[in-house]
Design goal:
Blueprint: E1 6-9, H1 13-24, E2 29-33, H2 40-44, H3 60-67, H4 82-95, H5 97-100, E3 103-105, E4 108-114, E5 130-136, E6 139-145, E7 147-150, E8 178-180, H6 190-193, E9 197-201, H7 205-218, E10 225-229, H8 236-239, H9 248-262, E11 266-269, E12 273-280, E13 283-290, E14 293-300, E15 302-305, H10 334-337, E16 362-364, H11 378-392, H12 396-400, H13 431-444
Parallel strand pairs: 1-2, 1-7, 2-3, 7-16, 8-15, 9-10, 9-15, 10-11
Antiparallel strand pairs: 4-5, 5-6, 12-13, 13-14
Helix pairs in contact: 1-11, 7-9, 9-13
Bound molecules: flavin-adenine dinucleotide.
Amino acid sequence: MKNLPVAVIGAGPIGLAAAAHLINRGIPVKVYEAGDAVATNIRDWGHVHLFSPWRYNIDPVGRALLAGTAWHDPNGDTCPTGADLVADYLEPLSRVPAMASVIEFGARVTAIGRSGIDKISSRDRGQYPFVLTVVGRAGVRRDLARAVIDASGTWSSPNPLGGSGLPADGEATHAKRIAYGIPDVLGRDRSDYAGRTTLVFGAGHSAANVLLDLVALSLEAADTRAIWVTRGTDLSRVYGGGANDQLPGRADLGQCLKEQVESGQIGLITGFAAETIREEGDRLIVEGAAPSGRQTIGPADRIVVCTGQRPDLALTREVRVDLDPWLESVRALGPMIDPNLHSCGSVPPHGHREVSHPEPGFYTVGIKSYGRAPTFLMLTGYEQVRSVVAAIAGDMDAANDVRLVLPETGVCRANPSSAVISCDSGSPAMPPAISEVASAIEEKAGCCRPSASAPKPAPALNCCENAT
Ligand SMILES: Cc1cc2nc3c(=O)[nH]c(=O)nc-3n(C[C@H](O)[C@H](O)[C@H](O)COP(=O)(O)OP(=O)(O)OC[C@H]3O[C@@H](n4cnc5c(N)ncnc54)[C@H](O)[C@@H]3O)c2cc1C
């Protein structure tokens, strides 16, 4: 079995980092990427500025692989866009010959099992190789693997509009006028939004970005209107901690959104749980539950759903996985990242133990390891895969020596929950990083008067919710 490759599912930043570590240790690896190129998910939000600067976005072993090429290291304090991250790091990394030879594009893994035994059988389970159902360009096939690292992300499984977590009635019927995630309102998708009224659902930074882009678009295209709809009524997390926020850039983004709401540029409806979408004339009406009873919103032309993502659990149906019951993250991480308890995304250092499962040799890494929690940072994933690959190599000293130092954001005060657990306790503070991140963001913020020609507001580093 040792001659079989380790299967890495997904060529996003964390899957590629896993492959780089495996290559570095001389372990055979096969990377399956569903898209036609690396980082398919990031390409979808390529117009969005990251909130972490370059220095946090590059895996050290990835950097080492690139060092022997003509690659220009963008290491520094500037925050790239998603498109920059792909063009200036992930694409070059994927072209390094040792990497290029192990990535298969257009290869979607649809199921994972163990060859010859089903999920129930326990005896000698770890001795059986994994078997993957792969839908490739030449058709469907089965591949064997010695271990599986699932880095397939969550971006392609957005949460639905329905306030209950179930799709709203009519959501599928009107799908053509509904976007999920962060549409490129000022670019690729401009014609869908110019001169139209859009309802934006969600209370995270994805919604903030879409709303501010719509305001910017309204300066060029008359009759462009944005209405922001949230389930909760306390917007303090997305507005940020104001003067108490240790990250000025995040405070600016939140302030910017707040100003646009207070000035009436953005309509606001809070405490609304969507249930039904229906058509009236050729426009959309959304009905749902509000504190005062049943409420109707609209008419609108478009809906943008920014309610987060969830992992695709079908992929792992035939392997023994252990997940947090509501976050669907790996179980060990659940209590550390539960947004009901934590308002920031700091997690203690963790590695192969936390991202493993009862299924020996199977690991969930990257943003998928966080399940529905919106606080994942690439830095976290790079340390996860370093530890996992060391464990696969049998180098348990390295595997167990986990170190993770995340930039603190000091926004825990902004959490409205009375059950807040202080994020400062037990997580390593990193004062220089705070100021580095903050100043990089500050340069790109100053967005309170959006204009279509002005630089787009940058999503600021937010330990409570990243831009998902
Ligand atoms: C808008 C936005 C902004 C963010 N900003 C930051 C930031 O500033 N800093 C930061 O550290 N983090 C940020 N994040 C969080 C996180 O770092 C990114 O989401 C990152 O892309 C996660 O990397 P990943 O490799 O885990 O997953 P992904 O990047 O989602 O990659 C998963 C890959 O797997 C492929 N795939 C999926 N299913 C299959 C399958 N069945 N078979 C084969 N291939 C498959 C996909 O096509 C994709 O290429 C941000 C996230 C979002 C959405």
